[in-house]
Structure formats: structure tokens, C-alpha cells
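Researcher: Structure prediction, please.
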Amino acid sequence: MQSPHQILGPSRRALLLGAGAAALTAAGAPAAAAADPSSAAPTAARASEAAIPSPDDLPLTGGPEFPIGLFWPPHPYESTPARFAEIKAAGFDFVISGNYAGDGNIFQYQLGLARTAGLQMLISDDIQIRNMSRWFSISDNPADHLSITPAEARALYIRARDAYGPYSSLAGFNLYDEPGAGWFGTLAKAVAISRELAPSLLPYINLFPSDDPAYYRSFVDVVKPSLISFDRYPLLSEGREDGNYFHNWAIVRDAALHGDIPSWVFIQTLLYHNHREPTASELLWQVNISLAYGAKGIQYFTYWTPEAARGEGFGPALITVDGRRTSRYAASRQINTTWLHQVGRELKPLVSESVVHANETPLPNGTVGFTPTSLIADVSGSPVVLGTFRSRDGSADRWVLVANRSHSAEARATLTPRLSGVSAVGVFNPRTQTYRARGTGPIPVMLAPGAAMLLKLDAS
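Model: Predicted structure follows.
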């Protein structure tokens, strides 16, 4: 059970999902627990019986391509073939529905547009799914308030599956955005129902930002999800950073490794309240820091700009309220099509082994400083973040993503391989998607603000 101050809400995503959703999530875990009497009980028998597919066999989490998605797509009046082609051209792979698309006919129309454009969709806000997993708890006890039986939950899921399942662009359903921990019992049942009735679809849930490791670890242990996704937006006003951004990433990374599931994150694309409008370098920085911490999927918040009538004060995102491209559309297209897809294909099958910050004093909360390893003897110069990865085949080779710690200054550092442990070094070239061999001596690292490079260290 989380206290209200341990979960940082309501977030911008909760507000976008509407006043009703915000009212539920803003209360934090205690209110959610009261709404879900089943959460304290063991997961239902049907949930424990449901087969848990490997993420490798599901849409987006499976396959070689690194998934890049967006939230808040074009609204229904701008849902056109040209707009969905524009999304694809910017290097996006999937869309999470929203922006007033809450009607089944609109969802079907958008699924058709996505299919034509070569995109996939995660359906949010379908009334059947919301009734199954968000507005009512799933319980066999008829005395439970605001609950439905497992049989009723299955009937609701079948309606949604049958309505949208004929579209090959359907990747899955967003079962709940930013649940409190008290809702995990019902979500475990909802995920099990999804796996039973549509094992080839992705049951998607996105979590709150939180500084409490128990929140994420409980999600993994109770819900048994196919991935762990969260949102935390680090770029604050007046040039400040969220001091616990790295800490939140570290505990999500730990939970993902604990469950052996992929971790996804949302990156900030716009100004709101005490958050600033990101530069192109700051978009890239969020992406590369997330990759260093083991991200297996990147999602942009938001794509289309939420309208001013919502009263939430959002600045322009990738596309303005009236449909014009901003500089961040061009920046995201550059990032997605020339770097993220290419480096993501390399990193997606690998396992995050460690994340360290080198040459940074003081260390941010939740981070670990660099110490020499059997493969890397020294890192000198500018502050950088090193994410080290291994393959699943037991090889002693390692991959190291070196990310610029700064989103505003160039980094100049030197990484020195340990000669006794490294027989060869390759530098990844995203344009050719190959590794350029270089000597095993000190490696100069010159990175633009927010940029990163990927090295492959062949063990001796």
C-alpha cells in the first residue's frame, strides 16, 4: 500500500484521460484499494491458470523492431490517411488512442487508417475495457460495491476483442493508465482474461511516476504483466531537472529485471505547469538516458497538442492544436529514423547488466558511480552515463551505451578498455547498422548534447 505522497500524481496523462479518470487516480493507492476489495485476496484461480506468453511472442514487445509509440494522436476530425502517414513518416510504430476518440466506430476507422499506414494501435478508453478493468473491480463476491463477476468481465472483453480483432493493426488494449497499488488484484484478473481470450494481444498498463520501489515490484509480482511502462517528465522550468528522475528509472529497471520483462517509458515533448518546452537535444537526452537504463520501448507524450479548452496549460507538442508541425516533430523524426530504430534493434534483445554515472559529482539520487570492471579500466573527462548489456546466450562479450549526461553541453571523455579482458572493440554506425572495428586502446568519446554511442566489447 502506497501513501499518497509516495506516488507522484495526478500526472499529465491522468488529466488527459478525463476528469473521471483523474478523480480515481489522484486519490492514490488508498482510494484504489477501497474500490477494489479483491486486491487483498489471492489472484483468482482463472488468473493463475492463464498461460503467460513470453513478451517475445506479443505485438510490439516481440520481434526485432524497437517499438516507438505516441500518446494523444490526431483527434477524430484530423484522423485522415495523410495524418497517419505523417505519423509513420516520423518513425513511429504504434499509436495509443486518445484525443476524444472514445467511440467504437471511430476506433475501427482509426484502426483501418493505422493498418494502411503500417502502424499498430493500443486501444484506450473503449467502454467495454474501461468497465472491465477500470470502473469496476472483478470479484465473485456479490456484496462487493461496484464490482463485476469474472464471467461478466470476460463477456465485456469478448465484445471489445470481436469489435476490433478483425483489424491486423490492433496490438492490444490499454487496461488502465496509472493505477494505484490497490487496483493490482483486479488488473491481475483482467490481464489473465486478456491472455485467455486473446493470447496474441498485448495487455498494456502504464504506471505512475513513483519513488517507492515496492509500487513497481508489487505490480510485477501481483499482475504478472508482459511489460512495465511508466511516465516521469524530468525537464522542469528554469532549466531544472527532476532530482529523482534517475532514481525512478533505477527502480523501474530493477522491477523489469525482477520480472524478466521489457521496460517502456514516456518522454516529455511539451511545456506544462512547472515543466519546460524541450529542445531537440533534450528529446534526444531523454531517449538516450532511457536506453542506458534498459528501456525496450519509447513513447512520446504528447504527439498532438491538447487543446486549451481543457484548462491544463499545455504548450505545443510535435503537432500544434491546429495541426501544424513544430520543430519537435522534425527532431523526433530525426531521432526515430536515424538513431533510435537502429540502436534499438541492437539493444532490444540484450539484458541490462549495469548502469553507472562516470565523472559526475555529486551523484544524482539513486545512481551508482563508475568503478573499474574486468572490461573497462577507466572513464575520464566529461560526465557520461554507461549502460552495459549482455546477450542471453552466456557470451562474455558486452555492449556499452555511452550517453552524454548533459542535454546542453558537448561531452568529451575517454573510455579505456582493460587489455586483459577485451580482445576487440566495435563502434556502432547507425547508418550502416554495422560495427566499425577499432583498436583496444583508449577510446575518445565526443558526444553532442544529449547524444550517445554504442560500443561492442569482445571479451578476451
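Model: The domain at 4-347 is CATH 3.20.20.80 (TIM Barrel).
Researcher: Thanks, that helps.
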